Fold this sequence. Notes:
This protein has one domain: Jelly Rolls (Sandwich). The chain contains one helix and twelve strands. The chain has one helix at 124-139, and strands at residues 6-8, 11-14, 17-20, 34-39, 47-52, 57-63, 66-71, 76-81, 86-90, 95-99, 106-111, 120-121. The longest helix has 16 residues, at 124-139. It is globular. The two termini are 20 Å apart. The mean pLDDT is 96. Bound molecules: thymidine-5'-diphosphate.
Amino acid sequence: MSLVQLLTFRVLGDERGQLVALEAGRNIPFDIRRTYYLVGTSPSVARGFHAHRELQQVAICVAGRCRMVMDDGQIRRDVWLDSPDKGILLPPMVWHEMHDFSVDCVLLVLASDHYLESDYVRDYAEFQRLVRHADNTSLI
Length: 140
Ligand code: TYD
Protein backbone atom coordinates (compact mmCIF):
# COMPACT_ATOMS: atom_id res chain seq x y z
CA MET A 1 0.00 0.00 0.00
CA SER A 2 1.42 3.37 -0.95
CA LEU A 3 2.12 5.81 1.88
CA VAL A 4 0.29 8.67 0.17
CA GLN A 5 -3.30 7.80 -0.66
CA LEU A 6 -5.02 10.82 -2.13
CA LEU A 7 -8.78 10.90 -2.47
CA THR A 8 -10.40 13.10 -5.11
CA PHE A 9 -13.99 14.07 -4.40
CA ARG A 10 -16.59 14.90 -6.99
CA VAL A 11 -17.50 18.60 -6.93
CA LEU A 12 -21.15 19.32 -7.53
CA GLY A 13 -20.74 22.86 -8.80
CA ASP A 14 -23.18 25.17 -10.46
CA GLU A 15 -23.71 28.92 -10.74
CA ARG A 16 -24.46 29.04 -6.99
CA GLY A 17 -21.07 27.66 -5.98
CA GLN A 18 -19.59 24.30 -5.09
CA LEU A 19 -20.76 21.39 -2.98
CA VAL A 20 -18.77 18.31 -1.96
CA ALA A 21 -20.50 15.37 -0.26
CA LEU A 22 -18.58 12.95 1.99
CA GLU A 23 -20.23 9.63 2.72
CA ALA A 24 -19.03 6.75 4.89
CA GLY A 25 -18.40 3.61 2.86
CA ARG A 26 -18.67 5.52 -0.43
CA ASN A 27 -15.96 8.15 -0.88
CA ILE A 28 -14.73 7.84 2.74
CA PRO A 29 -13.36 4.32 3.34
CA PHE A 30 -14.58 3.86 6.93
CA ASP A 31 -17.52 4.59 9.21
CA ILE A 32 -17.20 8.16 10.51
CA ARG A 33 -17.58 8.45 14.30
CA ARG A 34 -16.01 11.89 14.80
CA THR A 35 -15.26 15.05 12.85
CA TYR A 36 -13.10 17.94 13.96
CA TYR A 37 -11.53 20.93 12.30
CA LEU A 38 -8.53 23.14 12.83
CA VAL A 39 -9.05 26.86 12.23
CA GLY A 40 -7.04 29.98 13.00
CA THR A 41 -3.76 28.08 13.06
CA SER A 42 -0.80 30.41 13.02
CA PRO A 43 1.39 29.93 9.91
CA SER A 44 4.40 29.63 12.22
CA VAL A 45 2.84 26.67 14.05
CA ALA A 46 3.19 22.99 13.18
CA ARG A 47 0.74 20.42 14.62
CA GLY A 48 0.23 16.70 14.79
CA PHE A 49 3.54 14.94 15.49
CA HIS A 50 1.93 11.62 16.29
CA ALA A 51 0.65 8.37 14.84
CA HIS A 52 -2.46 6.41 15.76
CA ARG A 53 -2.45 2.75 16.68
CA GLU A 54 -5.86 1.98 15.12
CA LEU A 55 -7.60 5.17 14.08
CA GLN A 56 -8.20 5.93 10.42
CA GLN A 57 -8.66 9.53 9.32
CA VAL A 58 -9.21 11.59 6.19
CA ALA A 59 -7.95 15.20 6.19
CA ILE A 60 -9.25 17.86 3.79
CA CYS A 61 -8.43 21.55 3.57
CA VAL A 62 -11.90 22.90 2.86
CA ALA A 63 -10.36 26.40 2.72
CA GLY A 64 -6.76 27.55 2.38
CA ARG A 65 -3.90 25.10 2.49
CA CYS A 66 -1.40 23.28 4.63
CA ARG A 67 1.37 20.76 4.06
CA MET A 68 0.89 17.26 5.45
CA VAL A 69 4.03 15.29 6.23
CA MET A 70 3.58 11.51 6.43
CA ASP A 71 6.11 8.97 7.58
CA ASP A 72 5.72 5.17 7.83
CA GLY A 73 9.03 4.69 9.64
CA GLN A 74 10.92 4.11 6.39
CA ILE A 75 9.88 6.84 4.02
CA ARG A 76 8.71 10.38 4.56
CA ARG A 77 6.55 12.26 2.06
CA ASP A 78 4.85 15.61 2.07
CA VAL A 79 1.67 16.57 0.32
CA TRP A 80 -0.03 19.92 -0.05
CA LEU A 81 -3.68 19.90 0.91
CA ASP A 82 -4.85 22.90 -1.05
CA SER A 83 -8.24 22.14 -2.52
CA PRO A 84 -11.65 21.19 -1.05
CA ASP A 85 -11.92 18.31 -3.53
CA LYS A 86 -8.70 16.71 -2.28
CA GLY A 87 -8.44 14.47 0.78
CA ILE A 88 -5.64 12.41 2.20
CA LEU A 89 -6.04 9.12 4.01
CA LEU A 90 -4.16 8.87 7.30
CA PRO A 91 -4.06 5.15 8.08
CA PRO A 92 -3.03 3.64 11.43
CA MET A 93 0.68 3.77 12.28
CA VAL A 94 1.59 6.61 9.95
CA TRP A 95 3.39 9.45 11.71
CA HIS A 96 1.94 12.77 10.54
CA GLU A 97 2.69 16.43 10.94
CA MET A 98 0.95 19.50 9.58
CA HIS A 99 3.03 22.50 8.55
CA ASP A 100 2.75 25.80 6.66
CA PHE A 101 -0.88 26.60 7.43
CA SER A 102 -2.26 29.50 5.44
CA VAL A 103 -4.06 32.10 7.58
CA ASP A 104 -7.40 31.12 6.02
CA CYS A 105 -6.86 27.37 6.45
CA VAL A 106 -9.80 25.27 7.62
CA LEU A 107 -8.58 21.70 7.97
CA LEU A 108 -11.45 19.25 8.30
CA VAL A 109 -10.70 15.78 9.65
CA LEU A 110 -13.02 12.77 9.57
CA ALA A 111 -12.13 9.99 12.00
CA SER A 112 -13.18 6.37 12.38
CA ASP A 113 -13.53 6.55 16.15
CA HIS A 114 -14.07 8.80 19.12
CA TYR A 115 -11.16 10.65 20.70
CA LEU A 116 -9.02 8.20 22.66
CA GLU A 117 -5.67 9.39 24.04
CA SER A 118 -4.46 5.78 24.43
CA ASP A 119 -4.64 5.37 20.64
CA TYR A 120 -1.93 8.05 20.18
CA VAL A 121 1.78 7.38 19.75
CA ARG A 122 3.32 10.77 20.44
CA ASP A 123 6.96 9.77 20.77
CA TYR A 124 8.81 9.34 17.45
CA ALA A 125 11.33 6.84 18.85
CA GLU A 126 8.49 4.71 20.21
CA PHE A 127 6.71 4.95 16.85
CA GLN A 128 9.83 3.66 15.09
CA ARG A 129 10.14 0.80 17.55
CA LEU A 130 6.50 -0.19 17.02
CA VAL A 131 6.68 -0.17 13.20
CA ARG A 132 9.97 -2.08 13.21
CA HIS A 133 8.48 -4.68 15.55
CA ALA A 134 5.37 -5.00 13.31
CA ASP A 135 7.63 -5.55 10.25
CA ASN A 136 9.62 -8.25 12.04
CA THR A 137 6.53 -10.13 13.21
CA SER A 138 5.03 -10.05 9.69
CA LEU A 139 8.22 -11.76 8.39
CA ILE A 140 7.93 -14.66 10.87
P1 TYD B 1 -3.69 17.67 19.74
O1 TYD B 1 -3.66 16.17 19.69
O2 TYD B 1 -2.58 18.36 20.42
O3 TYD B 1 -3.85 18.25 18.27
P2 TYD B 1 -2.85 18.14 17.01
O4 TYD B 1 -2.45 16.70 16.95
O5 TYD B 1 -3.68 18.56 15.85
O6 TYD B 1 -1.71 19.05 17.19
O7 TYD B 1 -5.08 18.08 20.38
C1 TYD B 1 -5.29 19.31 21.04
C2 TYD B 1 -6.19 19.09 22.25
O8 TYD B 1 -7.51 18.71 21.82
C3 TYD B 1 -5.69 17.97 23.14
O9 TYD B 1 -5.93 18.37 24.47
C4 TYD B 1 -6.60 16.82 22.81
C5 TYD B 1 -7.90 17.48 22.41
N1 TYD B 1 -8.69 16.75 21.41
C6 TYD B 1 -9.98 16.32 21.77
O10 TYD B 1 -10.44 16.49 22.92
N2 TYD B 1 -10.73 15.72 20.83
C7 TYD B 1 -10.29 15.50 19.56
O11 TYD B 1 -11.03 14.93 18.73
C8 TYD B 1 -8.95 15.93 19.22
C9 TYD B 1 -8.40 15.70 17.82
C10 TYD B 1 -8.21 16.57 20.17
